[in-house]
């Protein structure tokens, strides 16, 4: 689904990544883990188009997307969530999801903002779909609430609903469990599995080892900008280099 081919990244004299190659399998949940400063965020930013790689290529379904900006990647179905939730605080929860749906709709934001008569049917369809997505992530009762007043954990679920509005083929999540308590993390784990069960490929950068061991089909371990290991959670747990470099730190 997503191929990272010999990715390298230099920031001035510092080599943040070197020779990173792996494939995020279609329909899988892939976790990218590693100690602090391993290069996870840098790799995530290269995959989502925030930075160009210094070397190597990013391929989505075989197509080289290395030079595409984030919006272009989103059009091809590569959608991301943020570690620091970015919501429209003054809008309702429902409206936040509707904004995502408008960017996908044929009529676009402009016509919808002015409520052209021929857009009313579309508007109704979008509102219904937004309700469905809130139901899917488990917060249907919060539709009318101002997004800025949401507790952090609910905000994360809303962000996921908004990402789902973009109809991702591949959802890239930046530390989705950061800031969540254990019951919220368990809820998140169920939701990510539900997303995978819809046929959407998921890749996440995450520090919460219990979460990645629970939900991931495949793990990639980075250390000091290189790939230390790749395998199933079981294989990674038993990998001596990983234990030394990473798990041993805990
Ligand atoms: N924009 C930048 N300019 C210069 N150096 C950077 C930049 N972004 C990252 N680095 C460096 O690249 C290396 C990898 O950092 P990165 O943030 O990708 O690691 P990480 O695995 O995400 O760490 P953490 O788990 O702490 O978030 C670090 O040495 C970092 O200082």
Automatic annotation (TrEMBL):
Domain of life per record: Bacteria
Keyword Hydrolase in the entry? The reply is no
Domain ABC transporter: where? Answer: 2-249
Q: Which PROSITE patterns match?
A: ABC_TRANSPORTER_2
Q: Which UniProt keywords apply?
A: ATP-binding, Nucleotide-binding, Transport
Q: Which GO terms describe its molecular function?
A: ATP binding
Q: Which PANTHER family match?
A: AMINO ACID ABC TRANSPORTER ATP-BINDING PROTEIN, CONSERVED COMPONENT OF ABC TRANSPORTER FOR NATURAL AMINO ACIDS-RELATED
Recorded protein name is ABC transporter ATP-binding protein
Q: Upper lineage ranks?
A: Bacteria, Pseudomonadati, Thermodesulfobacteriota, Desulfuromonadia, Geobacterales
């Amino acid at each position: 689904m997503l191929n990272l081919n010999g990715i390298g990244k230099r920031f001035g004299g510092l080599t943040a990544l070197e020779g990173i190659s792996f494939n995020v399998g279609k329909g899988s949940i892939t976790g990218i883990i590693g100690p602090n400063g391993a290069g996870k965020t840098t790799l995530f930013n290269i995959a989502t188009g925030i930075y160009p790689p210094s070397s190597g290529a990013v391929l989505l379904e075989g197509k080289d997307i290395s030079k595409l900006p984030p919006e272009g990647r989103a059009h091809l179905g590569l959608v991301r969530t943020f570690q620091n939730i970015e919501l429209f605080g003054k809008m309702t929860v429902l409206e936040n999801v509707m904004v995502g749906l408008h960017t996908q709709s044929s009529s676009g934001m402009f016509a919808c903002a002015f409520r052209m008569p021929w857009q009313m049917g579309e508007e109704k369809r979008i509102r219904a779909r937004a309700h469905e997505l809130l139901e899917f992530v488990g917060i249907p009762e919060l539709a009318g609430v101002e997004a800025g007043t949401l507790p952090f954990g609910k905000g994360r679920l809303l962000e996921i609903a908004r990402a789902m509005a973009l109809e991702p083929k591949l959802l890239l999540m930046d530390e989705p469990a950061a800031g969540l308590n254990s019951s919220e993390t368990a809820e998140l784990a169920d939701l990510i599995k539900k997303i995978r069960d819809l046929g959407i490929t998921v890749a996440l950068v995450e520090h919460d080892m219990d979460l990645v061991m629970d939900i991931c089909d495949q793990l990639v371990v980075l250390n000091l900008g290189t790939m230390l290991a790749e395998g199933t959670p079981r294989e990674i747990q038993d990998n001596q280099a990983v234990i030394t470099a990473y798990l041993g730190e805990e």
